[in-house]
Amino acid sequence: MPAIITKSFRVRNAKTFLTNLLGDSQGGPSAYDGTNYVYLAIGKPIPWDETNFGSDDTNPPDPDDDVATGFNVFRDGLAAGRITTTDMSLGIRRYDWTSGTVYTQYDDQDPTINGGTARFYVYEPNTGNIFKCLDNNNGAASTVRPTKPTSGLISSSFVLSDGYRWKFMAETPVSAQKFLTTNFAPILTVNLHPTASVPVGYEDQKKVQEQANTGSIESYIVSSGGAGFNKHSGPFTVKTIATRVSKTQFELSSDTILDSYADDSLIGATITVTHATTGNVTSGVITDYTQTNRVVVVDTDMDFFPDSPDTYSIGPTVWVTGDGVGANAYAICTDTGSIRQVKTLNANTGNSYTYATVQIDPQNKTTGSGATVRAIIPPPGGHGRDPAEELNGFNILINKTVNGAGTGNNYPVSNDYRVISLIRNALLSNGYSQDVLTPATSGSNWFANTESVHMSTYIVCNTTSLDHSDGRAMQKFDEWHSQVGPLPDDQIEGVNSGAKARVVEFNSFGNGILNITNVVANSSGGGFLPDEALRLTQTYTGYVPSTNNWIVANGHSDGWVNDDVTIPGTIFDVVQVGELQSGTGEVLYVENRTPILRSPDQRETATIVIEF
Length: 612
Prior knowledge:
612 residues, seven-stranded antiparallel beta sheet, 7 helices
C-alpha cells in the first residue's frame, strides 16, 4: 500500500534523538537507570592501505554497518571525549542569501518544501538571521538583502522593493555559531512554556514564535491567468497617481492602456494603490471613471490620500473565502488581460484558514474568464511558530573540539587518526560494578565518567639500562631508533605473552608511557604482561630488524612485578588497557576520513551531521 514517512516524523525523530541521547536511559539489555553518556572517539592510526584492500589515505573506504566495525572502533581507538548538550544542535540545510538568485516561495502543496530540497528560506551570513520566502514575485530574482524588522514589527512579514515577501524566522547567536558549516546551520525552536527561560540571543525569535498568526494567507499562486479581463492597467510598477482630490477621488497619470478606456468603462474594477514611501497598500472598487484627465472615484475612503508618486494597479476584484476570516487580495494583470499575480492587500492576511477558495471577478464586472488562483495556507500555528519543524530541522549537528593533549594525557599528540565515531553508554574497564546505579562526575561507575578517556593501552616502561638475570642485554627503551625511542606506527611484540600492537607514541610527556593500539592477543587470548620484555618487530618505515631490540616494561629486571608504578602526579598500573570495555554500549556512528595529524598545540573540531 502507498505510504510516506512525513517531514514531521523525521523532525520529531531528530528532536527525540537530541533529547534522549543524553537523557535518562531508556532501558534495554544490561541497562540501568541513570544518565546516558555519549563519547566522540578518535582512532585508526594505521594507514588505510594496510587494512583495507583498494583504499588508501587519499581514498578512505566506506564504513560497513556490521559487528566487526563496532569492535574495530574499540580495537583501533585512541581516545574519546564526552559529548554534552552544548555540543549538539538541530540543523537545517544552509542556503546563504545571494543577490540574483531565484528562491522558491513557500507553498503548502509543494512536496519539495517538506522534502528538504527546495531553497524556500535563506541564511543571511552578515547577521546570522534566517528568513522564509513567502512570495518570490512571480519567480523573479531576489536583489534586495532581507534584514530583521524593527522590534515592533518583528513578527510581521515584509515586502522589499524587488517584490519578495520575507518572514524573519530564526537567529544564530554566538553560542550556536560553532555548528555552522558550509552546508548546514543550527536551528532552535524556543520553549514557550511560561516558566521556561529564553536562551541568550533568541529573544527576538521568541517574539516571532509567540506572535505567529495561525492560518494567515500571505501569498497566492496563479495556476492559470485566464484571458479577456478587459478592465485593467497592466503591470502596476510604471503606473502613478497624478494628483489627489480626496481619499475617494484622484487623477491618474497618462498611460497608453488607460487612455484607451472610455468614460465609465472601468466601473466595477478594483484599483489598488501602493504608497511610494511606506509601501502600504489600499484599495477600492471603481464607481465612476472620467476619461478626460483620467479621474477615478471609488466606493470607500482609501487608507491614505493617493498622490504622486504613489503607484497603482487596476484589475478584477478578488474574493477570498474559506474557514478563516479577514484575508484580502488584489489582482495584477498583464498588458493583454490575463492575471499575472495576486497579492496580499497590505496586512490583510486574515487568520484561522486551513483551506481557502480564491474567486476572480465573482460579480462578472469584466469579460474575462479562465483564471485559477490558489491561496497558500501556512503550517499549523502559522509561519514562525516552530522554526525547526517548518525549515526541515531533521538533522543533528554535533561539534566537538579535541584540544591539545586532552585531559590527563588521553589524546595522543604525535600521531594521526582516521576514524571518528560516537559511542553511547560503554562501560569502564576498571572498577565496573553493576550495583552502582548512579553515575558520578569522575572515577568509576557503571557508565563512563565525565572526563575524556583513553581507548588505547598504556604500558609504563623502563627508561634505564638494565641487565636481565638470564644474561640477555636489556636495552633501555629510548635506544630504539638511535636514542629516539619507539616511534609512531612501530610494531612491537611481547616476548613472554606473544601479544602484538602498534605504537601510538612514546614518552610524550616525560612519564615513560608507551601508548599502543590495535592490540592482538596471543593464541591463548592473553595480552601484554607486567615485567615482560618487548621487542621491535618492524619499524614505521617497514624495516624489519635483523636482531632483537629488547626493552622491559615495568622497570624491574629481576622479574618482580609491581602493579602500581608511581609517575609524577599519577599512579598507573604497569599495563593499563583502554578505559572503555570493548563491545559494551552502542556504536552509533562511524566516519572514515583522510589522516588528521595531531600535535600538542593543536585544536581539531570534529563536526558530525546525522540526517533523519
